[in-house]
Amino acid sequence: MHALSADEIGIVELSLRVALVSVAFSLPVAVGVAYLLARSRFPGKLLIDAVVHLPLVLPPVVVGFALLLLFGRNGPIGRVLDQWFGVVLAFRWTGAALASALMGFPLMVRAIRLSIEAVDRRLEVAARTLGASRAWVFASVTLPLALPGIITGTLLSFARGLGEFGATITFVSNIPGETQTLPLAIYTYTQVPGGDPQALRLSVIAVVLSLVSLAVSEWLTRRTARAQSDDRR
Amino acid sequence: MKCRTLLVARLVVVVTTLTFGCCTAFAADVTVFGAASLKEALDAQARQFEKDTGNRVVVSYGASSTLARQIEAGAPADVFISADLDWMDYLEERHLIRPQTRVDLLHNALVLIAPASSKAVLKIAPAFDLAGALAGGKLAMANPDSVPAGRYGQRALEHLGVWQRVRQDVARAENVRAALALVSRGEAPFGIVYATDAMADHGVRIVDTFPTSSHPPIVYPAALTAASRSAAAKPLLDYLRSAAARSVWEKYGFGVAP
Amino acid sequence: MIDVDIALSRGAFHLVATFAADARVVALFGRSGSGKTTIIDAIAGIAKPSRGSIRVGGDVMFDAAAGIDVPPERRRIGYVFQDALLFPHLDVHANLLYGQRLRSADERFIAEDRVVELLGLGALLHRRVRTLSGGEQQRVAIGRALLAQPRVLLMDEPLASLDVARRVEILDYVERLRDEVRIPIVYVTHSVAEIARLADTVVVVSGGRCVAVGPAHDVIGRLDIVSPVDRHEAGSLVDTRVVSHDAETQVTTLAFDGGVLHVPAIDARVGQSLRARIRSRDVSLALQRPAGISILNMLPARIVAVNAERDPVVEVQLAVGGARFTAAVTRRSLRDLDLHPGLEVLALVKAVSFDPYGVD
Asked: How confident is the model at residue B98 (pLDDT cuts 50, 70, 90)?
């Protein structure tokens, strides 16, 4: 196997950057939404739950199309972002990050919600009697105990984001060096005459990256769970 | 506990700066949206231009229809090279290109191809038996509804009175290169692509060429987009029309407009 | 000190609790499901009453009419849960300091070293929670609640999930707590032995209501109001002082206001005060001193009252000097011996019936 060419390194770096940024920004939102769904009761909760899961069941192209309509330069949100903040997402790698974030969001929320629900609520009650405010209880008891699920959710979403194609190509198109992530690059090479070897090389890289993220997720989850488990229950 | 919060805060700052600090403006000097069939030739031209001027060129290839719609949606292209006049007209009507920069750049021819290993022999003539030759297999074409290569192909087959008999056997590809790949891999016994595509792929052989009278002239117009702010865009366009560029175009099988 | 007047519903269960108590240890006594845990939940701010008020140490914690409901984290009321509820992701030391960290320096009047020493936690400080035994967990839980600098400590049946040996251990610690730390304790239990050992004031809770409030000495004798089963445990509490130990026969002598009690040797120093619990069913009555009998304690007593109910077992209240005893006898004996108020009798109490561990 030859070493990676400069182009290939660029593609991998772009893909990693897109996936990392998408995860970094969606994590706080996912934690908040997961906490809401796990602990609160409010009218419309089922609706929020359904909306969160939409990207999981919708065709990715539909998500990409919706993003284009909303966040495109002429879209309602895109226009505001551009004129007021100078931020443009369409056809930018930041838009690719948004697409990845959206597609991975349900996976993140699911995993985090499950682990928050698994936290014994009475531990939270005990913390309050010891003088902790609701916010401090969340930060010092709920979050640490939910950590295994948070890690799993993050890495799942990261791996999903790495492989995101349909929403990405529809929303930010296929611009080398800017939005051409690994899956898009592989797709492009399949259309280049004699491009199969490159497509294969990139595919191997994609597989390796996914395997590594899954392995790291497994290892981290086991480590945190072991450090914290209370198996006297 | 304090240490962990500080670490998280630092991480947030780093990530945010990376995200927004570096990317308010596009990094490339010129962005070209070019028809899929231009891939090898335009890549070569771009490399040469970069070497000569030091300006960076990024090219995004796709079906002209897709690219035009992306430009309409605000994609940051500086130069657009379409495989037919209709899609350039489409943008011109919407004032999305600078009309004074519009030029006809290249010509191309339309061919019927088969996988390199195929022994098929077919002569293109009015009412020729393409349907029989397909024998249940697929005719790979770029989407005839929107993509230039598909449109030309449909017009040619209509003109020859063959379209009605083969239309249900058409495998619609996203762009002409996808159609080329289908034939090259042996998935489809026949396909309709540009002559330049057939030249680029050793996995296919040309069965016959469509007479120029059977379809509208295949012309590749090029223009600067209205939204372009790149100082290197006009020089690039001029370069593509220069004598130095001409030999490269011809090497890849394109006809150069006078 | 603690003033509760509330009504609270949890599903089909309705609680109406009214009592006021000011003592070192206030025990909430009752069967499972009687509502005693609900009451301390309300005091802690974990359960919200539908009406009424709760005052602790003069401060209003809850007042439905005035719209006051202080959140638990601001009530400064410690809570020791039945199953400890230690934080599994922190070690023992971190658990202990959890509440203390949230208090400013001038609010800290209970020191860490003192609590560690009091509860014997020194060796456990760096252990992970899941490696601790039930008794160790309970001690850490008590320590943790204490270090949160509470004004009142609530304990919800802290011995219930422990085996007998652990219970003895923890009871000792709770007693030390009561004696050495100046924090009032509200202690929820269904065990008469625990009340006998620890409580100053007892609130009897039954069917969602407070049916009796009073000093432990009094309430111990009136447990029939709780349930027929508890009546079986009824008796009297006697304050005694250790007078001497006989090493050869292994008998300890306790003196009280009305005589002496001989019990099997217990580990206590001479002069130490002990509260002895004498179950009614362990007291027999005799009109004259029987001879050649193994019972060591034969105390002259005068019958003060007889509970003449329809049951086969009758409670006879006795005055033994300044102390009050109760004896449970059959209706037949009542008739045959003609037991009536004013009669001078002998109260016979087997030495062996004294439980040195207080855990029955």
From this structure: very high
pLDDT 10s digits, A95-150: 999 999 999 999 999 999 999 999 999 999 999 999 999 999 999 999 999 998 99
Q: How far is A18 from chain B (nearest CA, A)?
A: 10
Q: Which residues have a Cβ under 8 Å from the Cβ of A13 and sit 6 or more positions away?
A: none
pLDDT at B24: 40
Q: Are strands C283-286 and C201-206 parallel, antiparallel or unpaired?
A: unpaired
- Give the gap in angstroms from C-alpha B126 to the nearest C-alpha of chain A: 31
The mean pLDDT value of chain C amounts to 88
Residue from C73, C76, C136, C155 to probe the interface with A (highest A Cβ count within 10 Å): C73
pLDDT at position A193 is: 81
B:131-190 residues touching chain A, CB 8 A cutoff: 175, 177-178, 180-181, 184
pLDDT at B13 over 80: no
Q: Is C104 on the interface with A (CB under 8 A)?
A: no
Residue B25 has pLDDT above 50, yes or no: no
Q: Does A130 touch chain C (CB under 8 A)?
A: yes
With beta carbons less than 8 A apart as the criterion, state whether A23 and A101 touch.
yes
Residue C226's pLDDT is 58
CB atoms A130 and C77 under 8 Å: no
Q: What is the ipTM of this complex?
A: 0.83
Q: Do A130 and C144 touch (CB under 8 A)?
A: yes
Q: Are A16 and A8 in contact (CB under 8 A)?
A: no
Q: Using the beta-carbon criterion (under 8 Å), do B76 and A177 form an inter-chain contact?
A: no
**CATH classification of the domain holding A68:** 1.10.3720.10
**C26 and C47, same domain (yes or no):** yes
CB pair distance less than 8 Å for B58 and A175: yes
**Tokens describing residue A101:** 């974030």
Domain holding C326, by residue range, is 236-352
Domain boundaries, chain B: 25-107+219-256, 110-214
What confidence category does residue C194 fall into, taking pLDDT thresholds of 50, 70 and 90? Answer: confident
CATH, residue C345: 2.40.50.100
Calculate mean pLDDT across residues B36-53: 94
pLDDT (tens digit per residue) in B157-204: 999 999 999 998 999 998 999 999 999 988 899 999 999 999 999 999
Q: How many whole angstroms separate alpha carbon C156 and alpha carbon A191?
A: 72
Chain A residue whose CA is closest to B177: A191
User: Domain B110-214 is in which class?
Assistant: alpha beta
Q: Specify if A126 maps to a domain.
A: no
Residues of A in Cβ contact (< 8 Å) with B29: none
Given a cut of 80, is residue B30 above it in pLDDT? yes
Chain C residues within an 8 Å CB radius of A143:
none
Give, in degrees to the nearest 5, the angle at Cα B109 between B105 and B115.
Answer: 130
Cβ distance B79 to B33 under 8 Å? yes
What's the rounded Cα separation, in Å, for the pair A130 and C73?
Answer: 6
CATH architecture of B25-107+219-256: 3-Layer(aba) Sandwich (3.40)
**Exposure string for A69-92, b = 16+ CB within 10 A, e = fewer:** eebbbebeebeebbeeeebbbbbb
- C51-99 confidence digits (pLDDT tens): 999 999 889 999 999 999 999 999 999 999 998 999 999 999 999 999 9
- Shared domain for C222 and C243, answered yes or no, is no
Could you count the other beta carbons within 10 Å of the beta carbon of residue A165?
A: 18
Contacts of B177 in chain A (CB under 8 A): 191-193
A128 touches chain C (CB under 8 A): yes
Structural domain tally of chain A? 1
Give the amino acid at C196. Answer: A
Helices A196-228 and A182-190 sit at what angle, rounded to 10 degrees?
A: 160
Domain carrying residue A200: 6-117+132-228
Is A139 near chain C, with CB under 8 Å?
no
